[in-house]
Amino acid sequence: MLDALDEARIREIAASPASLRQFLHGLPGVDQVGAEARAATLGTRSIKTTAKAEAIDLAIRMIDLTTLEGQDTPGKVRALCAKARRPDPSDASVPQVAAICVYPDLVTVARDALAGSGIHVASVATGFPSGRTSLAVKLADTRDAVDAGADEVDMVIDRGAFLTGRYTDVLAEIVAVREACVRSDGTRAHLKVILETGELATYDNVRRASWLAMLAGADFIKTSTGKVSPAATPPVTMIMLEAVRDFRDATGRQVGVKPAGGIRTTKDAIKNIVLVNEVAGEDWLSPEWFRLGASSLLNDLLMQRQKLRTGRYAGADYFTLD
Length: 322
Ligand SMILES: O=C[C@H](O)COP(=O)(O)O
Known about the structure:
There is one protein chain. The protein is built from 13 helices and eight strands. It is an alpha/beta fold and about 325 residues long. It has a single domain, classed as TIM Barrel (Alpha-Beta Barrel), CATH 3.20.20.70. Strands 7-6-5-4-3-2-1-8 form an eight-stranded parallel beta sheet. β1 (about 65), α5 and β2 (about 100) form a beta-alpha-beta unit. α4 runs antiparallel to α13 and α5 packs parallel to α6. The longest helix is centred in the last third of the chain and has 18 residues, at about 235-250. The chain is globular, with a radius of gyration of 19 Å. The protein starts with 6 loop residues before the first helix and ends in a 12-residue tail after the last helix. Glyceraldehyde-3-phosphate binds near residues 226, 261 and 293.
């Protein structure tokens, strides 16, 4: 249990490289074997059929339906938006997804296609996925996405700076990007901070990067870009859920979690929902506080949903492509 952190104490921690390093390295170390065992145990919990039906619908509502390919086109994004609005055209009881996640140049297309639906437009920015551009370019990329109508910005941290211990540089960049999310009317696009945990080498680093992002003002912490493996593994998601839980205990501020990358099956999605419930608690069990970043999970959820209702599977070609 950490001491309470108020705004003044957070400013003090962030004020110098030495104090920030002392804070992050003073966090309790992660017991690697214990964390992997606990995440594996939680992942094998079975749930009842009724709970499974509810979990599938909750998972659909939590999806950030994603396309982040060089070959993306306005047509593909429009088709994905149609799927986001009405995942199964033959069944109006299927809920909508939380958001569509696209590159900045396709935000306008997604915004127009989703108008009036309540589905958010999320955009990656800051030189996604590597983040290897100047801060000026990262900020311009962010402003482009926000000006085009992004409700949410998914930024990447500078992993090179993090891994060489330049924590204040990482923090300052997150603070600057958060500032670039402010719209002309004073409202702000939500900021998801991608840690790219597959490049952080240790669970201790995952815990430190989670805290660093939250101290800098992240609205969400996100595991991965989906371009690096391993991505959203259960132990990593568990450590991030512990971090948001402990951060809220210490500051009173709730931060969301978004595992992304490699989440493809209903089983994966349900494992994540069990982790949320067991580790962070039910306050996080909604799309406001937990998202599943996924490009090809929705069809499996739709197939399992139909199987639960009718007792049989529709063929994979019954649903439109993810
Ligand atoms: O942000 C979301 C990820 O890019 C999705 O990764 P995925 O294609 O492995 O589902």
